[in-house]
Amino acid sequence: MEQFVFWCIAIFIVLSAFFAMIMKNIFHCALLLAAALFGVAGIFVYLGAEFLALVQVLIYVGAITILIIFGIMLTHKMMDSKIIVMNKQVVMSAVITGVLGTLIILTIYSTAHWILPALKNSESGYLTHSITTASVTKNKKVVTDVYTLGPALINPKKGFAFAFELVSILLLSVLIGATVIARKDQEG
Asked: Cα–Cα distance between 151 and 73 in angstroms, integer?
């Protein structure tokens, strides 16, 4: 049953991402991108990393996708049905994507010899040490508690407070830039 849930979420992600690439309406592409990102959050929940799922939903599905949709709606020319979405490089990009995908699969397959023993050693058949759970080491104990993780991330001495502030300034500048571009389109 667990693998069935995983494969359902994985197929949902792949189909959402595929249709986000081939849809002609850019607004629908943004909504399908949000669906694919939401599916990634589902994978995080499946793996037991609820904190990462929450961050995925808040940052990517919530903030980034809303900024993309906001930018699309502010630039009225992007919503025009006469705009050509596909170009002449579709075949070349499909070939390059196929070659790169094959190389990635072959690389994973050739390096699987160091992953398979870990799978065989676990009782359930899954990896026993998940690398996806957000955790903090405290007194040589791994803590996956959100109440401990939050202050550790924002601690000015060894946390990521500067990165949070930098990303907030970046998102604010994107929002201001989209507003300025939209205002120029309305004036001209």
From this structure: 37
CB atoms within 10 A of CB 36: 20
Could you say which architecture CATH assigns to the domain 1-85? Up-down Bundle (1.20)
Q: Where are the domains of the chain?
A: 1-85, 87-131, 135-188
> In this structure, are strands 136-138 and 141-143 parallel, antiparallel, or unpaired?
antiparallel
What pLDDT does residue 116 have?
54
pLDDT tens for each residue of 144-179: 666 777 777 777 776 677 777 788 888 888 878 877
Phi-psi region of 143 (alpha: psi -120 to 50; beta: other; left: phi over 0): beta
